[in-house]
Design goal:
Blueprint: H1 2-19, E1 23-34, H2 35-39, E2 40-55, E3 58-71, E4 78-90, E5 96-107, E6 115-125, E7 129-146, E8 151-168
Antiparallel strand pairs: 1-2, 1-8, 2-3, 3-4, 4-5, 5-6, 6-7, 7-8
Protein name: Outer membrane protein beta-barrel domain-containing protein
Keywords: Signal
Organism: Chryseobacterium formosense
Length: about 170
């Protein structure tokens, strides 16, 4: 199932990249929070989205990318590929925006399940780029087994990220 979702995401963004109007590409660096802070030192990632302007100040679209969490101590690195709906509101008269990506995140590591993806952002709008601060959260089952309760342990893998996206084709 993961391979099918990944293939669909790459096919979608391959077609979107041809048009390039509304296409954004960028990256982020972040500090893990929540359960991720216990097992990861920092995170790096790439972001891609395609947005349509549906009314003055409001854009909606689709988003994907890759977030890599670098393990610390005895923990291995792990990552997620988000597939999300994206929304962004640009305030009139000031160069600020708020945004939200909401969807699913596919885990790239065995033993860590895919989960719900939520990524609120606030940022500075420039003519060819946007600079943002965001809180990325993936609700997942880590794969650890709680022997006392005979169930899997739920985890939230989060990060506070600083990122930049560049507008292509505008």
């Amino acid at each position: 199932m993961k391979k099918l979702l990944l293939l669909g995401a790459f096919a979608l963004f391959g077609g979107v990249a041809q048009a390039q109007e509304g296409f954004k590409l960028g990256g982020h660096i972040g500090a893990p929070v929540g359960d991720a802070a216990n097992i990861s030192a920092f995170t790096l990632g790439v972001d891609a989205s395609y947005m349509w302007n549906i009314m003055k100040g409001l854009d909606v679209g689709v988003a994907t990318g890759y977030s890599h969490f670098f393990g610390k101590d005895r923990w291995d690195d792990f990552g997620f590929i988000p597939l999300a709906a994206s929304g962004k509101y640009k305030f009139n008269g000031i160069p600020l925006f708020v945004g939200l990506d909401l969807g699913g995140a596919i885990s790239t590591k065995d033993g860590i399940d895919s989960g719900l993806y939520v990524y609120p952002k606030v940022g500075l709008q420039m003519s060819r780029a946007e600079l943002y601060l965001g809180y990325q959260n993936i609700g997942s089952e880590r794969g650890d087994w709680d022997r006392d309760r005979d169930r899997r342990i739920d985890s939230n893998f989060g990060a506070i990220n600083l990122g930049v996206n560049f507008f292509l084709g505008k």
